[in-house]
Amino acid sequence: MSITALKALAQLIISNVETIESTCQSKGTEFPSLDDLFEPSVLDAHPAILGASRQIVAAAAQIIATVRPPMELLSEHATGMYSTAALAFINSNDVVDVIQLNGTRGMHSKEIGQKIGVDGSKVDRVLRYLATRHIFREVRPNVFVNNKVSSLLLKSKPWDELVADPSSKYAGALGASAIGHTTEEGFMGAPYIPQFLKNPGQYQSPFNMSIKDTTNIFAWYEQAENLWRGRRFVVGMRGAGERFPPEIFTSAIDWKGLPQGSTVVDVGANVGTVTLPLAKAFPHLHFILQDLDHAISDAKVFWQDRFPEALSERRVEFQVHDFFTPMPVKADVYFLRLILHDWPQEEGIKILKHIRAAAKPTSILIIFEMIVLHACPETSKFAAQSPVPPAPPPLLANYGLGFGGFVTMADMQMLNLLGGRERTIEEFEELGRESGWKLETVKPGPISAFIYTPE
Ligand SMILES: C[S@@+](CC[C@H](N)C(=O)[O-])C[C@H]1O[C@@H](n2cnc3c(N)ncnc32)[C@H](O)[C@@H]1O
């Protein structure tokens, strides 16, 4: 049986590699090599490539789980903190940028150590641990070069991207910011997860337990000594947001059909990565970005940089607004992207109730979030609205690491940082029901659109 399953998994890998090959041929391009630096490619959002990658990742992980000795596999996961610590070390010491000074020649760990003020004989161990897991490449003994994965952490990118804080080394560095946030703030809370699950006490999250303070992480970011972390989060969040194709947002509802001058509120907008493509595509709409103080300051810089006309024509407004207080705008459309996953049920309901209290009978609410799929076949009435096609056997129903990997990882991160959660479609329906909103439509995708009307 296990050989039959292994062969089926190997076959899935081969047939999907062939799909990648034929798609590359039809596009006249090569599939990016693991050995090169990361470059955005036309293939990144290509549906055939995304579908093939999903099956290959799912099948490869399942083969590894089948053939790797179970104790070794368990130990790999049990020592996951070394991956976090290794990434935190190289990211905070700019090791990727240092190695890149020598380009494809690579750099000896002793030289890397000298440049960052760390014993080189320790640096090589960290880099080898990562190179063994395909982050960096060891080209000769103790000599390392960047690859497709490590190069995402380069900070010395041209500063044409938004700069939340031009004096920060994280200013345009989307990957380094997101990974810095996770390997530092995330790493603080993670050890407290078991204790929190058993007995949260006065705390809303494991992160709060780690700082021994009930201030939520967003309010904590507003404190003077943590402001730089908050700004790094803004840059990382933009990176996380920009990986979704803008069509997800521009096709969520019939924006064109909204009357001239309709008001659209981006609740918890951060710098407004979703509003930007909407404002470009639908000049007849008026947009209001709401967030906390530092995010709104960064949003103003972002828009001045990316779309200054929207500011001079007053098509975009900025509002410092706490979404746990009454919504000040009676809008035609409210949307929230990656907001509700931050919060436990009670807080999520509070946010939506404030919006409901301000809404008109004709207002529309759109929630953009990822969907959690069970690792077994779905049984709910929403099973047909899956963001992914049915997984071929013997893959897990949620494609394991090929799809469920990212959502479950994000779910643990939300639990850790804010006591939040990623949700199933049923849970989104329930969230609406408990806050006065009726779920009308779900548009499944890499990030899904849940469309509600007032109940
Ligand atoms: C996960 S980010 C999502 C940002 C944005 N919607 C996006 O998709 O790029 C969460 C956002 O919620 C904002 N936020 C947190 N607490 C808030 C509050 N009480 N009122 C308003 N915004 C808040 C944060 O500043 C942050 O920008």
UniProtKB/TrEMBL annotation:
Classification via PROSITE patterns: SAM_OMT_II
Keywords: Methyltransferase, S-adenosyl-L-methionine, Transferase
Domain of life of the native organism: Eukaryota
Domain O-methyltransferase C-terminal: 260-379
Entry annotated with the keyword Methyltransferase: yes
Pfam families reported for this sequence: Dimerisation, Methyltransf_2
InterPro entries with a match to the protein in the record: COMT-like, COMT_C, COMT_dimerisation, SAM-dependent_MTases_sf, WH-like_DNA-bd_sf, WH_DNA-bd_sf
Keyword Heme set for record: no
Domain O-methyltransferase dimerisation positions: 76-156
Identification of the protein by name: O-methyltransferase
